[in-house]
Amino acid sequence: MTSVVFNKKLEDLLAVAQRDNTASREIHFPQAPTHMEVKSPLMEVVDYIIEDALGRGASDIHVEPGETMGRLRYRIDGILETMIPPIPMELYGNIISRLKIMCRLNIAEYRLPQDGRFSYEYFGKKIDVRVSIVPLINGEKAVLRLLNRAERFISIDGLDLTAKNKEQLIELCHRSGGAVIIAGPVNSGKTTTLYGVLDLLNNSQKNIITLEDPVEYQLKGINQLQINTKIKLDFSDALKATLRQDYDVLAVGEVRSSEVADLLVRASLAGHLVLATIHTSSAAKVIYRMLEMGIKPYLLGIAIKGIVAQRLLPRLCPDCCSTYLVEPDSPVARFLGEEFRPGMQLYHRQGCDKCNGKGVKGRIALHEILVIDEKIQECITNRCSLAELEQAINEKGMISIKQDGIAKALAGLVEIEAVMEIDDISI
Fold first, then answer.
1. pLDDT of 29-47, one tens digit each?
2. In-domain check, residue 11
3. Of 6, 214, 215, 377, which sits most exposed with the smallest number of CB within 10 A?
4. 163 and 293 in one domain?
5. What was the pLDDT predicted at 202?
6. What pLDDT is stored for residue 23 in this prediction?
């Protein structure tokens, strides 16, 4: 879905920066300016882009090179919106250099990827900005992830869980040991769910430790350790040290390696509750991802207690969404399958002042929660095929992401077409 927004203020700032003969020289100062120094027009452009994105509720900023003009896009409610005007390429390189200076990266290096971060003050709030820069054919592309430290994390009551899924998740997290894995692709809300679970478990009688990269929200009463690869404090080393910290609950921000996966499994077998996130599209595929990491099937079958897989979709604006009749022979009716009924109505977006004409407002999570029982454990131990595992899950009666999406579409929370576009929801 393409969305384009004209930004008059950005147009004016870019025009001033182009006319300013000193902008390209000032940007190459080795240190970022102090609060007492006067900002150059180009610095004003970069600050405005960050503040404009924050004001629009963006989660990411994309700064992309082109042949004659660069492109600026914000990810808002999961959708990339293009800002007009584009960035003149004579200013583009200096904008990237300014971002590198803010991250204290090497401004002379443009052939290799670089990652960095900086903090930004926005209306008295501390914003963490993670920056990824990669070289492309026409120049370097920068992606900025915006993390608001002061933003209130969502409790388990606000995670869009159905009553059954919420009950299952609470039961899983109150077990004395075992691993609960939260899965999904990038930007699927895994960390939000993890924090909701940690908030549920948090009390003075438990030693809860998290390993995160970065710490997105500070949770009072929880020991949060931030990974720092620059000083060689990676997930593996931090996890080895944490295992000696007399913990009750251990949460790992992301399982990225075979060594971390192995340590997590062994920690869960020691009688502690272990929480982790992993980049995988479905509950069934989490099991195969961990087997591919070298975890022995019989150990995994015993260690893992449950899996939460999820996706985020744009939430329909409740003030302007409208209904339509589902035609019997339509692709929607075929997708609904046994859920379809003659005369069924679904919802689609319209657009109003409250949602800025987009028809969507925020995002909503779809979930599937797999509780490992003896049948699933046997499938894992015997390393059944993915098809056999999915069949066993289907027979178990798990509410799949597809089923959860259909239920939320029927309730007017999402468009059914958005559910249909999700990959890997065949169960």
1. 445 544 445 688 999 999 9
2. yes
3. 6
4. yes
5. 95
6. 42
Bridge-based pairing state of the strands 60-64 and 322-325: unpaired
Question: What are the beta bridge partners of residue 96?
Answer: none
**Boundaries of domain holding 114:** 3-148
Collapsing DSSP states into helix, strand and coil, what is residue 131? Answer: strand
3-state helix, strand, coil in the chain (%, to 5): 35, 30, 35
Contact of 168 with 369, CB cutoff 8 Å: yes
- The Cα 249–Cα 392 span in angstroms is 30
Q: Are 403 and 367 in contact (CB under 8 A)?
A: no
Band of the pLDDT at 133, cuts 50, 70, 90? very high
d(CA 267, CA 261): 10
Rounded mean pLDDT of 127-140? 95
Question: Does the CA dihedral 216-218-219-225 come out positive or negative?
Answer: positive
Residue bearing tokens 């859920």: 339
Per-residue CA distances from 154 to 195, 250, 315 (Å):
7, 19, 16
Q: Is residue 304 part of a domain?
A: yes
The answer to whether residues 271 and 247 touch, using CB atoms and an 8 Å cutoff, is no
Domain limit, last residue, from 127, 148, 169: 148
In this structure, what are the phi and psi dihedrals at residue 12, rounded to the nearest 5 degrees?
-65, -45
Whole-Å CA distances, 335 to 68, 153, 214, 329, 384: 44, 34, 39, 10, 28
Return the pLDDT at 317. Answer: 95
Q: What average pLDDT does the segment 371-399 reach?
A: 92
Residue 420 near residue 331 (C-beta atoms within 8 A)? yes
pLDDT tens-digit map of 81-107: 999 999 999 999 999 999 999 999 999
Q: Whole-angstrom Cα distance, residue 386 to residue 402?
A: 18
